[in-house]
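Researcher: Quick test of sequence recovery. Tokens follow.
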């Protein structure tokens, strides 16, 4: 089965995620997401970036954090998920732990 990647222009991305272009510029600057492609006059984002931004927007509303705080929270959440995955992998190799 072929993998299909959906891409968005800046305008489409902002409409899809509910953020403004100014907010998008800020979160790109913070490293929350990166454009999939940087064309001469615009950025192109993929569906994974949209999922990350939707998660960030949800956290922003639930926790009332600013974008730099959201960037830190997302990094920590990703680190925790990675550590849980490593722990599960190691535990499956060592029964009884």
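Model:
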């Amino acid at each position: 089965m072929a993998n299909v990647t959906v891409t968005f222009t800046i305008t489409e991305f902002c409409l899809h995620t509910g953020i403004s272009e100014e907010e998008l510029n800020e979160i790109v600057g913070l490293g929350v997401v990166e454009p999939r492609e940087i064309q001469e006059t615009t950025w192109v984002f993929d569906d994974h970036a949209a999922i990350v931004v939707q998660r960030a927007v949800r956290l922003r509303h639930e926790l009332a954090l600013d974008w730099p705080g959201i960037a830190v929270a997302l990094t920590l959440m990703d680190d925790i998920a990675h550590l849980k995955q490593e722990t599960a992998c190691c535990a499956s190799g060592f029964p009884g732990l």
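The CA atoms of residues 52 and 71 lie 11 Å apart.
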